[in-house]
Design a protein that fits this description.
- This protein has 936 residues and is an alpha+beta fold.
- It is built from 33 helices and 24 strands.
- Helix 19 runs parallel beside helix 24.
- The protein is globular and about 75 Å long.
Length: 936
Amino acid sequence: MTVKLFALCGVALSTLAMPAIAQTVPAPAPVAALVKQVDIPYSEFRLANGLRVIVNTDHKAPVVAISVWYNVGSKFEPRGKTGFAHLFEHLMFNGSENAPKDYFTYTKAIGATALNGTTYFDRTNYFETVPVAALDRALFLESDRMGYLLGALTPAVVDEQRGVVQNEKRQGDNQPFGLVKYKQTETLFPATHPYGHTTIGSMTDLDSASVEDVKNWFRGHYGPNNAVLVLSGDIDAAKAKVLVEKYFGAIPKGPESVVPAAAVPSLAAPKVETIKDRVATTRIYRMWAVPGINNPESVSLDVTAGVLGGLASSRLDNALVRKEKLAVRVSANNESFAQVGMFVVSADVRPGIDPALVAKRLDEIIADVIANGPTADEVQRVATRDAAARIAGLESTGGFGGKAVALAEGALYQNDPGFYKKQLAELAAQTPAQVRAASAKWLTRPVYALTVVPGARDAYVEATPPAKVAAAPEQPVQGTRGALPPVGTLANLDFPKVAHTKLKNGIELVYAYRNAVPITQASISFDAGVAADVPGKLGTQALTLDMLDEGTLTRDSIAIAEAKERLGANITSGSGSDRTVVGMFTPSANLAASTELLADIVRHPKFDPAEVARLKNQQLSRIAAELTNPQGLAQRVLPKLAYGAASPYAKGIGSGDGKAVAALTRDDLIAFQQAWLRPDKAKIFVVSDRPLAEVKAAFDARFGDWTPTGPAGIKDFNVKTEPSASKIVLIDRPDSPQSFIIAAIPTTLVGTDDLLPVITANDSLGGDFLSRVNLDLREARHWSYGVNGSFRRAQHDTPYLLGTGVQADKTGESIKSLQADFTDFLTTKGITKEEFDRTITDAISSLPGNFETSGAVLGALQQNDLYRRPDDYYATLPQKYRAMTIAELDAAARKAIDPAKTIWIVVGDASKVRAQLDSLGLPVEVVSAASVADVR
């Protein structure tokens, strides 16, 4: 089962003694029926300057998603200028001639949500979802950075974002297996191939980027004739045409981006290579360059990847993980770009197993799929999974995967906004013969066989420090377009009406109706959580949750996985501080069948001893992986320091205590299940397009006769806890190009308090891109890719936590700067009027966009229940925000946060950072990464 910590979804569970309940299981909806539900109506037009505009009308919420896709990515970069496309993506957020401040300053003032920009091989895109009343201003801003940017590009701006990008690169490189992407790209493609270098680029090329280089890059690629603009939401084509012409029509054409020729290369001979990294397990890769989405065979290769290692019931999962127990994790993915793709298969070797044996079996299974192809059932399961995922994506107008993305991608890559439908139809029509033929054609060519083994990395290639920003102020930009357009009257949040009912056995069901897409999402939430894990046996809960879908009294793990795939359903589990949850996503056409499967998983887990042993090995491997990961190491140390060792919340140490997990028995899991995953601790939350009566009937039929066994578990929060005194804990992780920092500040807050004022105050300190700490370390000093601080809200304790990664040579200075930011904010330099106004405006204006999806509504229902808030809580927020004052927010922050209590956790190379930390005047405790494994 997919287990997620800090999830907000849930389910329920019963006793082993309960007999299986005979149910009539409805047949899954045919994949063709699901595919027919995937539809994004659109219209399009083109301006005289070449800008292509696509409009999708969706009136479900008073918001419009704006997505601008430029026909430029890293494949357009010449040698010596790698990373330019991505660097420019960052520069487009640093202000334009008529909006010279940081882009987020303007978007926050209009309540924009789902806001970001990304770069990859084929494209650069920018997107945001805005209230319809702010559409004029948002289009002005997008058009200004398309047509009026050059005057705002200064040496200081380029230096700033160069430093930020280099820290983004360090952050990725600092992860276990973080260097594989370079090996993969550089081996599969020749250096002269357009796809032959990574999008992030090289440190050397980034250092050499001059202002004139950057301006020339803009002139050559960012004209309107190289862009697609998609508007999806509460707008029609007629209005869109008027607004787009008004704001974009005067931008002149630029040169046409010439898409470079990019044939699919083949290695001259198989290449076998082994590299070392600070990883916990050996990972074996098999990689090929394959066609991209411009070739129909890419769909067949998608199916191959699903059958091999993408489905939960994949060939590799069933053989290497479940049956032969040679691997603890497997995967297969066909990542398709516009012109080429990369087909990657991997297996993490189970500790104690000979990697050569795993490699042999991996190759044999791949060869079998190539020779004999998949079954028709496997093909249909892949198609159903993908169709269900696409249906879910249609609920969002924008963001990373909504309707605007589907339309823009098709238009840019295939000159067809409706290309997504052709892809799905092609997927649904795939035959085993087609899949076998494509696999035989592309996966029998010479392979790149890479093995990553535990060991010390090669020396890291660092950047030359960016040039210092000139002290003299630069000439301010002179805008020519006048004032920003006004924002109209903002619509109020229309939060769905919430209904409460009870099943026959008294389990409460909380329901909200949403009909934008035909899906149902449900959570059964247990009053358990991290705080319920077993003292001395930490990891019991995680293993119990993992075991739920590894076999019931009537289905084994493979049958469960196949059933989910045929239904297009997903069943996950997880735990937050106070709740343990099992969640269900399903196309509503399969509601009854998916609910039956959910009930079987929750009520009748078998806890087969052989499966318990296998899942224990997987959990131990996850624990070992956490000990190689900067964030994992910090999170294992954090709870005892922030809460005190005696607190129930101190149990939240990742995947648990390795020694305790190794000793867990089947009886331990049954005991936890019966004490905590039971109907008298359960509450069901559902958001669906089906009426309450149908939803209740489905759950009543499967859960209404469920009764508990034995005494219920009890959480004791009366115990006295003592968080750590202020100090620095340095976890030594050699060869780290970055230091990962957590600042933990204990507070007296509890989650059921009214925390809205202090959370709102934190927006200016650490909760937003424009917060003090992020603007300091990222934008002003460019030592970090990003800084975020927030209150970790739990029912009985709510510390303040801040996290960031900083370049290693600036570790001490970064902490010193953060200390100054805290002190200033909480004493003499409290919230400014500008910060206050934009925070309140954003908090109110963003509400409709924040609740565009049923998943967001489902999370809100559960949070309201957890923190004992009324059903209409979110509808009352505008009134609460409008009543706030600067003085109230300053007072709330100063009362809650005491910087003198800060506990600093630093994960980095002690040989590089210890001296820096010693200069800060706090006790420094150095521990090895290996010692973090011992939670006692």
